[in-house]
Design a protein that fits this description.
Elements lengths: L5 E4 L5 H43 L5 H31 L7 E3 L1 H18 L2 E7 L6 E3 L1 H17 L5 E10 L2 E8 L6 H6 L15 H11 L3 E7 L3 E9 L7
Parallel strand pairs: 3-5
Antiparallel strand pairs: 1-7, 2-4, 5-6, 6-8, 7-8
Helix pairs in contact: 1-2, 2-6, 3-4, 4-6
């Protein structure tokens, strides 16, 4: 990435700030769970009634009947979109609740690359891992770290509609384990780069706007930082820094 590329860096949290963040995370997760319950019940009722109406109109062959069926199908689509947004918000709200264990970050990256390979091949994208064999273990919630990789990988592939390359690099920097995800995609404008971690901000039609904010919450909950450099027409690099573990892997 060129030196003049746009850069955005999240600050490293102190232990006191991390404790306050965890308390807010627990409160948000509790509120989100209650909100989801209150929304899902009427949403389920609406969906069920729309399905019954669609069944009643299935054999209707008049122009009026076909118009009504199309409108019902549109409403069913909107209900499905609302369910997707709700699920994304729950994931965002619960991203700070960790189940930590000492593990191998390289292993998680390698397994994700294997999972992503068929999709990358279909999109004409070369996956290039550069994983430091001497990388120390980190304390992490493996399910949430996989979610981070999935979000960054998905965004990178969407940014390379004409193909390209996607690099995954790991190395040690002092008491930190570093993961970099670098694509050769379209890059971002400065306004987009500045807002990309804001909840519900999205440049993609139909996007929830919670993917990168969720990534940031997960990384910060691990006492980590996430940086982003991007240049239009050249690509984007995300750099994640996590504290290494003083424990040995089991």
């Amino acid at each position: 990435m060129p030196k003049d590329a746009l850069n955005l860096k999240t600050p490293e949290l102190t232990l006191e700030e991390h404790d306050r963040l965890q308390a807010r995370n627990r409160e948000l997760a509790q509120l989100a769970g209650g909100l989801a319950h209150e929304i899902r019940n009427p949403l389920s009722t609406i969906g069920m009634n729309l399905e019954l109406l669609a069944e009643d109109l299935a054999d209707e062959d008049s122009p009026r009947g076909r118009r009504m069926l199309r409108r019902i199908e549109a409403l069913q689509g909107e209900c499905s979109n609302l369910e997707d947004v709700l699920n994304a918000f729950l994931t965002f709200a619960r991203a700070g609740q960790l189940k930590l264990r000492t593990g191998n970050l390289n292993q998680e990256v390698a397994e994700y690359i294997s999972f992503l390979q068929p999709q990358a091949d279909a999109a004409g994208i070369e996956l290039r891992p550069h994983l430091d064999a001497a990388l120390p273990a980190v304390r992490m919630d493996t399910n949430l770290i996989r979610q981070v990789l999935a979000n960054l990988g998905r965004n990178a592939i969407q940014a390379m509609p004409d193909g390209g390359s996607l690099d995954f690099l790991t190395h040690r920097d002092g008491d930190r384990a570093i993961l970099q995800v670098i694509d050769t995609g379209k890059g971002m404008t400065e306004p987009t780069r500045k807002q990309m971690f804001d909840a519900f901000f999205s440049t993609r039609s139909g996007g929830s706007g919670l993917g990168l904010p969720t990534v940031r919450r997960i990384v910060e909950a691990h006492l980590g930082t996430i940086d982003c450099e991007s240049e239009l027409g050249r690509g984007t690099r995300f750099t994640i820094s996590l504290p290494i573990s003083l424990e040995t892997t089991s």
